[in-house]
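Q: Convert this sequence to structure tokens.
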Amino acid sequence: MGHPDEEALFHDWNRVGFEGPLVQGRITLLDETLRDGIQSPSAVDPSIEDKKQILRYMARLGIGSADIGLPGAGKRAVEDVQALCETIRDERLPIAAGCAARTHPNDIQPIIDLSRETGVRLEVLTFLGTSPIRQYAENWDLDRLEQLVARAVDLAVKADLPVAFVTEDTVRSSPRTLERLFRTAIDHGAQRLVLCDTVGHATPDGIRALVQWTRELVDRMGATVGLDWHGHNDRGLAVVNSLYAAQYGCDRIHGTALGIGERVGNAALDQILVNLRLLDAVDCDLSALMAYCRSVSEATKTPIPRNYPVVGEDAFRTATGVHAAAIIKAREKGDAWLADRVYSGVPASMVGKHQIIEIGHMSGESNVTAWLADHGYEPSPALVAEVFRAAKRSKRTLHDDEILAVVRGFTSAPGEA
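A:
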């Protein structure tokens, strides 16, 4: 819910120069956690039961699509994809499923077979390296690449499956190569083009140029084709690049929970969700975001850093006097909306959390007063002073049990109550 005085309470420089929304139209999301994400060199491949639970959280979050595996990788991959398809079918999960595949019949045919066996219409996400550096390393020529694209798309289209043509390392591929392969894919029936920053090379300016060029090509062809963005985080730009891709014209954005993935990872889908929700580009209930991220963390043995945005343990904690005082004053106004935003760019309530005031060496007495009240203790001046002295002797934020020890010691002292 908004606030009746929201426009007067802060000036939003993010919207300067935009007459309408920052992101045009509604954005859909494709979750790569169960395929690209578990390629992380540090991740454990989750059990099938864990994968099913993660898939359920995706559906609860309103994530539209999920890449649930690469069946061409072998027997285990086939079995897992089948089990996930059956879960979607039997539990009627509101999520579309797709599978990755090289532009090779050996990868695409298993997807076709699984779709027929389970009754789940799988999207074929067929990928091919297209950058000059990759072509040189692999000794590929453009004629051969075009043949691979045509054959792969034809095979999936003949089976009546939707096809997204994925160009690996799109952001370092030449216009000549991309135009020829995009035209081939579209002419043979591909419904989406996936622009990939496979090695995390892109900047927002590069994304703008690439997306605008691709849109112009599609328009010249008179085709109706969706555009996806798939980014990696090698330069630390994956999330912001994904937002720019959405702003510049991609209508489906890929990512993974916690940004897990090859090398330093993919774009963090949880952060993308939060930002798109704040930009009114998606209308998702994010109350399951914490459970989704924790489920992925536990299943893949990937720790969530304490300072990780939104879902990290420190996301909505403060022990600083000035910050806490502002939150407390907002609470005293009886305004929960204000208290959740006065020192936070993300409202904690949006993801089922709340602002936490703690006590440490940087705290003021207002921190102590708030903590005591929140924990059911009368914040008498003497008790506040006792806890405040303990905080100032520390070099860090105090743990709850440490504060409780001070409180109990004070209340049990002769003459104290």
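The mean pLDDT is 94.
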